[in-house]
Design brief:
The protein has 367 residues and is an alpha/beta fold. Helices cover 40% and strands 18% of the residues. The protein has 14 helices and 12 strands. It has a 7-stranded mixed beta sheet with strand order 1-3-2-4-11-5-12, with helices on both faces.
Amino acid sequence: MPATSALRRTLAVIAALPLLTLAACGYGSEAKDDDTAKVAAGAKKIDGLDSVKIGYFGNLTHATALVGNQKGYFQKALGATEAKYQVFNAGPSEIEALNSGSIDIGWIGPSPAINGYTKSKGTNLRIIGGSASGGVKLVVNPEKIKSLKDVKGKKIATPQLGNTQDVAFLNWISDQGWKVDAESGKGDVSVIRTDNKVTPDAYKSGSIDGAWVPEPTASKLVAEGGKVLLDEADLWPDKKFVITNIIVSQKFLKEHPKAVEAVLKASVDANKWINTNPDEAKAAANKQLEADSGKALPADVLDPAWKSIQFTNDPLAATLNTEAEHAVKAGLLEDPLLDGIYDLTLLNKVLEAAGESTVDDAGLGVK
């Protein structure tokens, strides 16, 4: 199928997806016992805003946002402006929320950011920072798949058509010399698009033979007897690739730069605390997952999942461009014009003030 038709159909699927969110308020909530989550005495509103609406996923790859919420970093940075949260199940629904103004800033994977930016012809969002690298694995049933070549002919799940892991898996399949129709998922490998929430049950039932998925889903499969056949980090230079970015609506960035800077400061502070206190940070992220979903991760899932993720302020922009090329190669995207997708001005301002190294936009920044 021509890439143009594939793009139209992919974007149609994205546009049709419902907005699946769970509201979670982080403004002095009774669910928190951390004083930093409360508004400091004498604090003032930033840019005159009553609130800043922040979105993220209930994934460990979004732990910067989980910790920032749980430990009150966002609220502390925003002063008397309320930090509000929405938790998403899929990137397209978060892009829809950003476009509608339901959120102002979000933590999101690279493929939805690329798709959103391309669909709007570069008018709806900017990537303003990085958050995480890694945390994606191919986990398989060891009784059915004993080596990488055995993946051919098997049923492998990805989270969603055109999502970050779906694109990565399709690219890997192509590199093996195998053929799969990107939209239907049919071919030398059967690519089964399955929500991360139900993937472990699909694995247990035998309806899939494995999955290319982010954490903690990968470690949930391992806990069910699965085997890690491939860590995606091993496919990238220096074993680094962007898995989570921070995005903002261009309108909000233009009208409320001080609020955006405050959120970025909170993100940098959260990442510093995460990397300095990994065990405490892991527990805090898990506590927020429990608050958002009603269920914490068991240690046999949490511990290995956490070890595979690197938390970084660097958006690893060069790898985003590579991931876009993979989507084009798969036939899911026309050759995108990504010039201007990044605006790292405020992030680098925050990093300089913190005495940390600034980051690069790989030539894809606002001119």
